[in-house]
Amino acid sequence: MTITEVINTENSNLFNTINVVEEKTMSGNESRIQAIHQITNRETMSVKTPKPLDKIWATDVFNLAKMEESLSKTAFKAMKNTVKTGAPLDAATAEVVAAAMKEWALSKGVKFFSHIFYPMTNITAEKHDGFIISDSEGKAITEFSSSLLIKGEPDGSSFPNGSIRMTNAARGYTAWDPTSPVYIMHTDNGSTLMIPSVFMSWTGEALDKKIPLLRSIDAMNKAGNKVLSLMGETEIAPLNSSCGAEQEYFLVDSNFANSRPDLLLAGRTLFGASPAKGQQFDDHYFGTIPARVQVFMQDYEDQLYRLGIPAKTHHNEVAPGQFEIAPYFEAANIAADHQQLMMTLMRATAKKHGFLCLLHEKPFAGINGSGKHVNWSVGNATQGNLLDPGKTPHDNLNFLLFCGAVIRGVHKYGPLLRAVIASAANDHRLGANEAPPAILSVYLGDQLEKVFQDIKDGKITSSQSGGTMDLGLSQILNFERDPGDRNRTSPFAFTGNRFEFRAVGSSQSVSGPLVAMNTMLADSLSWIADKLEAELKKGTKQPDAVVAVLKELMDLHGNVIFGGDGYSSEWHEKAVSERGLQNIPTTADALPALREDYIKTLFESTGVLSPIELASRYEVYAEQYILSIEVEAKLVIDMAKTLIYPAAIGYLAELSITNSSMAEMGIELDNSVAKKVAEESNAMIAAIAKLSEAIEKHDFATMEEHMQFCANVILILMSKVRLHADILETEVADELWPLPKYQEMLFIK
Ligand code: ADP
Ligand code: MG
After folding, report:
1. Angle, helix 672-694 to helix 645-664, in steps of 10 degrees
2. CB-ligand 1 contact for 371 (6 Å cutoff)
């Protein structure tokens, strides 16, 4: 009986059967058998009685409500103004806030605090300090002044800095971002007061993902304000961008994960034959959530609620073992901090529940990968959501201008949008007929596409409506249909009152994409403001001036609008040959955009990144790409040599013993399987030799050359090793196979 049969035989006594298999094969696939054994006999995690939402909501956050309780009226007013508008905070208020924060944290049993910051990786960094100091008599007292709150100094120069800091010039600073609330992070090892912070070099250059995000919001606010003033708005509150990120992820039982060095170290399977059943039946999407996963989700979401993170939806995703969670949208800076926290907590909570949480963009070949749709909009307290068209977009001029700015931005800065989502992992997903193509186009939907087409033709007359959805069933109430359908093949789609950047990878920080979107918007709004100003100065009436500006914009950039099937090969060809858009398949091709002059100018003119900061980012991301491929290549070699080859040879040995004893009895066995195993083993060894040689090459003139080598030589050689290994998986006796198989990891929960 094969292992799969064991699992699938519902009435079999699993325990006994596994014991029998185990005795027979202790050497070959011990850990794999053990894993199935452990999972089958796992005790179910008990579901804790859920606490009511109002008892847990934001209990671990020092938010405005808590400040109001503990601060004087004047201090609270100053702090509230800073949180709402980003206005600077005076030293006296900072002192009072620090004291209140400390009291609150100590009252909750917290002994440590930490600036949490967001280096140029996709993970967070923190350095913990105790509130405690001892006085001259050796008594313990607690201390937390505003200077400790405002500034931290993480030692070491070990964070990626892209040559900005010499190894011997290690000083870096973290500084409190008062617009993102502090919170308490509980772990089994204690609780810490976490202070969201920016991170910079001694020379003041941004070394993190938060500084450019804050600057990009600022730039967008300024440019947007100018446009709105020209449109005659007199009261204009500060503009901010919003972000709602849908996070996809896989859960794999940790017993399996522990037997897969590739999952543990690279976050994806580097080997694995396709299972007989994958996702062909589309029976997982929105299906019933497995009980064990539901227990995990509830535990996870309760923690999110305590941290004031508005988890809103969760469901099964397309692939077996894949799920999604989406919080309600928030201001971009807060959403970005929350998104990081969600990824950290997701991994930690999954571990507690006996799962490995995979945030990798493509953990399993041939199975859907994971993305992170970043829903993004821009608005303020006075004009509302500026990307909300209302029912009659054709006469909503503010909307048309802001939407036009997005169209121009995606067209002009498409390669930048591609660069900020570029990673070795996301390359496996983009364009793989399941995720958006690596061509940046904009989907508007029927209604808006027509409005912008009309503008291009020099007129705006009316907007078609979605009409009513009438099913002809008396028991189902009629409802208003959306004026446009959804298009899931588009990388950048309008979805009613926001854009959805669908090409972002599941493990990525949302900051990079938000910075790119805010900055391109700032640039486009400035362009629009200049043109509009000139038109109005000429004496053109406001609506006609808007149409004139947008007509010019559409003539220059309308080519980026595409409503068809983004997966089709026809589009891939047409986009490039007829529309002049770029298809940028790999990170090696995408990252060099960061070195282009027009991108440098964009960031410098908006004040978001200086040329030095931009150059350092290019270097850091290029290095990360190269390193992650090199690590994977080494793993491929290691696993193929020490796990897969021995299994193949072991099987050959078994076959040859059986063959000889059969021959003694005068029975001749078919030897085609043995031949095939021998051939594939030899071919795999030859492929390993080539890959080993390739990773020894280090003499590259530029990082670009090195990245191209990774994309076009190393990755190809890795896939050759995998090809033979995966064939071996289908030939070698199941009981000898050392690695948990796809069907086991994806279907056993
Ligand atoms: P779908 O799967 O249909 O794309 P979801 O409901 O899973 O949609 O997620 C949509 C996301 O978009 C949510 O996080 C939601 O809060 C967010 N969102 C809604 N309105 C806005 C907005 N104005 N700005 C940014 N995000 C928004
Ligand atoms: Mg979505």
Report:
1. 160
2. no
